[in-house]
Task: inverse folding
C-alpha cells in the first residue's frame, strides 16, 4: 500500500465529499487529487527526483495535506519540519536530510532566504502561504495552475515515506525514517484495535502536522474517508470556533491543549456537541485534567494513544470504554493490533507482570531507522525490538502503565521515584496548573525530588502546603524536597515539557539552594 | 505481521476469554496458545521443517483453528483441502502441493491410508477426529499432550502462509499461494472499510474453513478478539441451534445457506436475536432471497463481500447501511481499503464508468501466485493487476456491479447476455428455488440462453410460464429460449453452481432439443 492509495479510493467512491476545509476554502476529494497530481508535476519540473527530500516549514493548512500526498505521488520523501524549533535547529534538519525543495508559509517566508543560503542542497523554495509572495520564491498556486497532472508513481510499501525529526527533549534532533508500510500499519492497526475515530467524520487538525500524532490522525482520517479541517495552530478560541463552524467529530489534542480548551473563558459559550472523539497523547495527562475534561465534554469518547515517532506512532490505546473504568484512566491502555508490546529488563528479557522495565515494541510500524545514524538505529532497535526509553509496567490484564522516561527517573537515597507519579499527585491540587518533577543533584541523596510548578492564574501557595498535600497521597520518599515556581514551562515542538532544560536551569540558578534544605536526613519539605 | 500475532495479543490482553467453542468443548485463548505451541512442537517432531506443507482434510472444528495457527508457528505452510472434492481431486492437491503431513478427522480417516499410498510425500497422518483412532495414524490429543511447547518461529510478512486450492468451477484445481501479508492486508482492510464484523463478538464458522471466505472470517475474528464457534458443516438446524446456544453475533453464509436457513421448517422456532452481522458472498444472491432474509432477520446487519481466493479474498463490500438502499442491493458494493479495483478492457485499460469489462485488482492482498504454475500466474497477474475473470461495471459512485463470470457470458445473435441478470429475473418467481442460466450451442444464434431450474418442493410450472414471467422483467433477447428442470445443481466445494458441468450435461443429453425450438427467428419460448 502507499499513502496516496486512500486518495485514489476516495475519488473512486466519494469524489464530491469535502476533502479539506481551511477557513472558507473548501476542496472536494476530486479537486484534492487533481491538485496533488499537479503539485507533484510541478515538483518534478523543479528537479525533484525519486527519493529526493522535499521539506515543509509551515503551520497547518489544507496545503499541508496536499504536500503530504504530492511528494510521494512524485516519488519523493516528505520532511515535515518542526515549526517550534530555532532557526539553527531548523537549518540542521534541512541540511542533515539534504532537502532539495522547501515549502514555507507566511510565517516562515522571512527566513527562507537565510535557510536556503545555509542549506546548499535546497534548489527551490515554494511559498505556500496566503499573503504576498516574497521575491525569489515560487508561488504554490501558480505552480499548480501551470502544471499538467502526472500519474502517481505509487511509491509505497517499504519505500521511505518521510523523515520526521524528533528528539527535541534530549540532544540533537534525529531523523526518524518511516516507510509507507510503517505509517499504514499503524493507522490500520489503530482502527482495528478499537472504535477510536469516526468513519467518514470531520477531523480537526489543531495539533501540528509535523508531529507523529498529527500525521497519524491525518492518515487515519484519510483511510476512514473523513473531511480534514485545519487551524494553523492551537488556540482555545480557534479550536472551539472550528468545531462549531465545521461540525467537527474528531480532534487530537495534547494534554496542555485540553486543559486550555476547557479552562479558557473564550470557549465557555462554544457549542462543542458535534464532537464524538477526542484523541490525546504525546505526554501524560493528569487525572485531574482528564476528569475535568470528561465532565466538560460529556458526549465525547476520549481516546488516549501512547507511542513515539519511531513507532509511527501509537502502540497502545485507552479506548472510550476504558475511560469509564477509573482504575484504567491512569494507564496508557492496551497494545494496538499491529504491534507487540513488552516490558523488558536491560538485557532485553521480559520482566514479570507488575515489574517496572523498559517498553519494547516489535511489528510493522517500527521505523526503518534514524536517517544517517546507523549506530543510533542499532542502539534503539535490538533483535527487531524498538527500545522506547520509557519506563513502564504491565498488569495481568495487559494494561500498560507508563511511569516515566527512563532518563527522567529519579534515584534518591537508593529509591526509584517516577516523576509522573509525583506530578500526578501535585496536579490534583486545585491551584496547580502545570508541574514538572525532576531529579536535581543532591550531595547527600545523590538526587533529590524537585518540583517546578505553574500556579493557576492569580493564586499563591507555599512550598510546604504543596508538599504536605503530596504527603497525603504518595510515599514520603517521593514527596518533593524542594519546589520552585515559574510562569511557564519550556516546551518542545510537540508541546512536551523539556525536563532537560528545567534541570539545566535549576543547576545554573539554584545550586546555592542546596544549603537551604532543612532536614537532610529524612527528605521532607523545603522551599 | 504474522497470522499468530493476534493470538499472542489475545493472550496478553484477554487470556481467559473463550477462544474456541465446539459443542461442549470450550478453550480460552491462554489454552489455545498453549495447545498451538505444543501442536507446533509435535509437527516438528514428525519432521516438519520450515516451508513444508501440512495439509488438513476435515470438517470445521476447534482443532481446525489450532491447525491454522500451529502450522505457521512451527514455520510450515497450511494446505486446507476441499472436503467436497472426489478422492482423486483430493489426492491431486496433496500430491501437487507435496504435503508432508496430513490431518484427517473422523469423516476422512477411512481414506487416509489410500491417500498416503497415493501421495508418497506424506510421511505422517494425524487423526484429529473425536472417534476411535484408526491404526497407523497419530492421535492429535496424544501428540499435544506429549509435546513440550516451542517458541513461535514468527514466520510472517511475505512468507507463504498457505496454499489454497481453487478453481473447482473450471479445469484442474490451482493452488493459490497466499502470504501472511496477503491475508492480513485483507482482514485489516475489510475492518477499516466498514463496520462489517463485531469487535470481541462470537463468530460462528458454518461455511467451510478451507474456503477463502471462511478463512477470512476466522482471521477477522482473531484480529477483533472474538470467540470462534464451529459447526462441522452447514445444516439449517445446526446453525440455528449454535446461534442460540452460543449467543452468536456474526455468521458467514453463502446465499444457498441463507435461503435454507430462513426457509427450513427446522429453524422456524429458533431464537436468532443475538445475531448482529450476517456476512455473505462466494456467489451472487438473488434479490428475492435477500429480501426474504432481511425480513426474517430484522435486527441483523447484512454484509456482502465480493472477491476470490486469489485476492485473500474480499475486495468489495456492501455494508449494512448500503443494504438499506434498494438500488445498491443488487451491487457488490464498494472497494475495500486495501485494494484498488478497476474495470478494464481486454488490453488492461480502464473502461468508462457504466461500461462492462473485467474486474482487475491491485494491492497487498493479491496472491503471490499459483503454486508451481508460473504461466497461469503470469496470465492472471499482469502489470501487478490480478485479472479476476469476472465481468462487471462500476457506476459513477464507485459501486461495483458484477454481471457474470466472463466465461459464463452468453453471446447470442451478437448480443451479450449476462447470466446473473437472467437468473435474478427467474429467481423472483416464487416457485423457483434455485436456477442457473447458461449459454448452449445453437446453430443459428451461436449460443442461446438456456435456464436450468430447481423448483420449490411440491410445485410445478411450465417453461412458457417461466419465460413469460421473465419477459416482463428483462429484454426479449435475454429471455431463456429453453428451460430444463432438475432436482439439484452440481455444486463446487464452496457451494457454487458448476456451470461448466451444467453445460456438459446439456450437451451430452439435450443435443436433440435444438430441433424443438419453436421460433428460431425471434428467440422466444421453448420447453
Result:
Amino acid at each position: 500500500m502507499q499513502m496516496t492509495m486512500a486518495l485514489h479510493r476516495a475519488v473512486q467512491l466519494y469524489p464530491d465529499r469535502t476533502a479539506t476545509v481551511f477557513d472558507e476554502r473548501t476542496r472536494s476529494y476530486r479537486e484534492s487529487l487533481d491538485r496533488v497530481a499537479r503539485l507533484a508535476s510541478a515538483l518534478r519540473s523543479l528537479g525533484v527526483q525519486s527519493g529526493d527530500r522535499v521539506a515543509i516549514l509551515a503551520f497547518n493548512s489544507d496545503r499541508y495535506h496536499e504536500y503530504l500526498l504530492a511528494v510521494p505521488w512524485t516519488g519523493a520523501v516528505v520532511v515535515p519540519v518542526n515549526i517550534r524549533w530555532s532557526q539553527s535547529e531548523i537549518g540542521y534538519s534541512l541540511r542533515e536530510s539534504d532537502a532539495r525543495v522547501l515549502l514555507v508559509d507566511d510565517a516562515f517566508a522571512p527566513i527562507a532566504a537565510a535557510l536556503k543560503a545555509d542549506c546548499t542542497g535546497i534548489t527551490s523554495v515554494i511559498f505556500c502561504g496566503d499573503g504576498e509572495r516574497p521575491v525569489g520564491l515560487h508561488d504554490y498556486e501558480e505552480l499548480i495552475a501551470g502544471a499538467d497532472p502526472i500519474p502517481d508513481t505509487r511509491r509505497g510499501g517499504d519505500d521511505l515515506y518521510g523523515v520526521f525529526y524528533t528528539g527535541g527533549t534530549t540532544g540533537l534532533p534525529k531523523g526518524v525514517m518511516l516507510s509507507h508500510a510503517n505509517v499504514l500499519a499503524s493507522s490500520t492497526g489503530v482502527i482495528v484495535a478499537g472504535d477510536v475515530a469516526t468513519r467518514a467524520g470531520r477531523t480537526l487538525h489543531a495539533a501540528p502536522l509535523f508531529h507523529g500524532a498529527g500525521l497519524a490522525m491525518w492518515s487515519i482520517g484519510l483511510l476512514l474517508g473523513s473531511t480534514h479541517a485545519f487551524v494553523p495552530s492551537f488556540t482555545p478560541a480557534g479550536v472551539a470556533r472550528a468545531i462549531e463552524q465545521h461540525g467537527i467529530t474528531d480532534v487530537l489534542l495534547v494534554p496542555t491543549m485540553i486543559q486550555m480548551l476547557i479552562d479558557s473563558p473564550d470557549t465557555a459559550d462554544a457549542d462543542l456537541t458535534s464532537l464524538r472523539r477526542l484523541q490525546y497523547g504525546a505526554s501524560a495527562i493528569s487525572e485531574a485534567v482528564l476528569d475535568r475534561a470528561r465532565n466538560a465534554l460529556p458526549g465525547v469518547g476520549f481516546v488516549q494513544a501512547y507511542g513515539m515517532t519511531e513507532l509511527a506512532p501509537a502502540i497502545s490505546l485507552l479506548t472510550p470504554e476504558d475511560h469509564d473504568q477509573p482504575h484504567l484512566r491512569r494507564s496508557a491502555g492496551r497494545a494496538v493490533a499491529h504491534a507487540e508490546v513488552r516490558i523488558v529488563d536491560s538485557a532485553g528479557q521480559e520482566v514479570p507482570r507488575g515489574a517496572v522495565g523498559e517498553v519494547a515494541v516489535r511489528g510493522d510500524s517500527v521505523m526503518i531507522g534514524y536517517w544517517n545514524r546507523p549506530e543510533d538505529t542499532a542502539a534503539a532497535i535490538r533483535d527487531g525490538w524498538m527500545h522506547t526509553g520509557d519506563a513502564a509496567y504491565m498488569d495481568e490484564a495487559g494494561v500498560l502503565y507508563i511511569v516515566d522516561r527512563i532518563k527522567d527517573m529519579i534515584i534518591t537515597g537508593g529509591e526509584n521515584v517516577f516523576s509522573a507519579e509525583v506530578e500526578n499527585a501535585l496536579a490534583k491540587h486545585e491551584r496547580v496548573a502545570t508541574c514538572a518533577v525532576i531529579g536535581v543533584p543532591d550531595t547527600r541523596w545523590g538526587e533529590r525530588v524537585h518540583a517546578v510548578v505553574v500556579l493557576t492564574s492569580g493564586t499563591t501557595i507555599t512550598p510546604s502546603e504543596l508538599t504536605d498535600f503530596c504527603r497525603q497521597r504518595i510515599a514520603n520518599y517521593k514527596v518533593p524536597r524542594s519546589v520552585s515556581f515559574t510562569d511557564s514551562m519550556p516546551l518542545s515542538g510537540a508541546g512536551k515539557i523539556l525536563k532537560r532544560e528545567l534541570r539545566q536551569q535549576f543547576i545554573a540558578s539554584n545550586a546555592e539552594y542546596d544549603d537551604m534544605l532543612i532536614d537532610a536526613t529524612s527528605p521532607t519539605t523545603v522551599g
About this structure: The domain at 29-156 of chain A is CATH 3.40.50.980 (Rossmann fold). DSSP finds 16 helices and 27 strands in chain A. The mean pLDDT of chain A is 91. The CA atoms of residues 3 and 184 of chain A lie 7 Å apart.
